[in-house]
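Q: Please design a sequence for this.
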């Protein structure tokens, strides 16, 4: 298997496109060239060659006739074109995972390569953010370097991109697994107002899919137990049913006295979060909150 892309200075799209292809074809040979004969002899050509034809495995996007867009209007680059073909395979035929990675990694790279801004930069501080494309550009050798030096640097940054691609896949798969765990607990729970988990979970991220949920109890990273109110919308600190007003801002002995629950440790002043020293204490706080007169936000 021979892969061909352009030589000399490289960009985020051809770097990540190469990382993707090498994940699918680990023994492939990568040729960086603009020589027509070498391009013609390659099995897959991307970001060079002036042709977009999936049937011929040609994936350039620089030609005037190119008009491939996502539904949101972002133009595809070589990375996006190859993701269309190989993304699902890379994600082990998990369409939801492939879609998430496309949205969070592929499309931003495509947009940048095509000169499309996907966010505004605040100019108050007279500095610019360091973005993924900036990191990739750092790998390019100085002007005047040899073609071989560019090729060596390219393969070094492809290795870096491969790690990002793999880590992104692993992390997003973990998030999807946790999402399914949360939603399965909701589906299977007799009391859908209160969900209890034995490990940290992103409960608040999926409350829009759990309309009856009011609270979740789960173990925190420090070994204590958290009681989290269901937000009225994802990302909001306003909750469907605030914790009792008399708990607001209290901690330790004061909260134990106000709630009558031994092991109660903290209640946020805005009444969306409480912390307890034990699972039993957290569940007791949750049941008290469910039976309180607190109005939903």
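A: Design:
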């Amino acid at each position: 298997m021979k892969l061909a892309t352009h030589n000399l200075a490289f960009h985020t799209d051809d770097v990540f496109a190469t990382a993707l292809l090498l994940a699918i074809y680990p023994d492939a040979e990568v040729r960086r060239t603009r020589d027509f004969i070498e391009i013609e002899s390659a099995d897959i050509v991307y970001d060079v060659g002036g042709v977009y034809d999936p049937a011929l495995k040609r994936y350039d996007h620089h030609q005037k006739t190119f008009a491939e867009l996502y539904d949101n209007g972002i133009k595809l680059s070589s990375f996006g074109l190859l993701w269309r073909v190989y993304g699902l395979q890379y994600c082990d035929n998990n369409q939801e995972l492939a879609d998430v990675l496309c949205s969070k990694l592929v499309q931003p790279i495509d947009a940048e390569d095509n000169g499309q801004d996907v966010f505004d930069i605040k100019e108050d501080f007279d500095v610019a953010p360091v973005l993924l494309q900036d990191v990739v550009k750092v790998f390019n050798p100085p002007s005047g370097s040899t073609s071989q030096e560019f090729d060596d640097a390219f393969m070094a940054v492809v290795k870096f991109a491969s790690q990002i691609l793999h880590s992104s896949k692993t992390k997003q798969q973990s998030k999807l697994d946790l999402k399914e765990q949360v939603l399965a607990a909701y589906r299977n729970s007799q009391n859908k107002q209160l969900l209890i988990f034995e490990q940290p979970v992103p409960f608040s991220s999926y409350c829009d899919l759990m309309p009856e949920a009011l609270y979740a109890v789960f173990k925190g990273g420090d070994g204590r137990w958290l009681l989290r109110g269901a937000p009225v919308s994802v990302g909001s600190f306003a909750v469907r049913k605030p914790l009792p007003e008399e708990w607001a801002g209290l901690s330790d002995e004061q909260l134990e006295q106000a709630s009558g629950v031994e092991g109660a440790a903290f209640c946020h002043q805005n009444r969306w979060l409480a912390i307890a020293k034990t699972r039993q204490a957290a569940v007791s706080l949750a049941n008290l909150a469910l039976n309180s007169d607190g109005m939903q936000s």
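Q: Thanks. Anything notable?
A: The longest helix spans residues 147-188. The chain has a mean pLDDT of 95.
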